[in-house]
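In this supplementary section we document a worked example of the pipeline. Step one takes a protein sequence of length 269 as its only input; no multiple sequence alignment statistics are reported here. Step two produces a three-dimensional model, which step three serialises into structure tokens for compact storage. The input and output of this example are shown verbatim.
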Amino acid sequence: MSDYLEIYQRFDPPFAAFDRSLLGPEFAQELTVVSTMWFACGYRPGIASYLNFFLLRDFITTHDTAYPPRFRSFQSMAKSFYQTDLFVRDVTDSGKHPTGGISGRKIREELQRIMARHQRIRIPSWMMTYFGFSLLEMVEKQCAPLTDEQRRRHLAYMAKAYRIMGLAFSQRRDLMEDFARRIEAAHAGVAPQVERHARNILLLGEMAGVSSKYDAIMAMLPERTRAAFEPVYARVAPNALRRLGARIAGRVLLPQAIGAPRSAVPVAD
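The serialised model returned by step three reads:
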């Protein structure tokens, strides 16, 4: 068994059933921290998380084999990104309309529907746990500096969300970080489809206002996937004219999932 799978077995298991006591006494404060951070972070963490996923060779090969239509074209990738962002904004109560995050029944049900769709195409749950933690790390990079209390509450909230979804997760940051770094060491690499996927996600990022310039992108990636992307970047990065065109087109064509910052309030259903 791989060392990262041994770590994965030490994570807290998915919740067998939901009870409001699982949210815990600090839930309101956790929701406030999460909503505030995710409003502030914009689209950069999401773009970087997609790119990082593409640079994990076995991850993207498994996904594209199981569900080829998702990233087949620029249009399908843009749709995937938008739908994922809508879903994440609902979970973190950082979208256009208040949801109460995981205190809301509809959000918990949507988490479980997302999990069921991934199970139907046989995406390993440990890969989904990695992606969830990678996205958490990207948001924290974008929102830095954070206090220890903010980071603790962020992880506590997201761990509960993923366990409601049906994934193993942990509030022990040291375990999660060890798991992630070992996965990156084992899987970072360039699959045949990476250049096409990377070209599309960087262009989509520009449409969403996320810089595709070298320093902006490389600063977000973990060490191993950053090293894998180094020799690829120059071939896939949009030039200045394409960046400008994408920014203009994005204002007209790209739907926005994020709304104006507001106070997040738990709901009782």
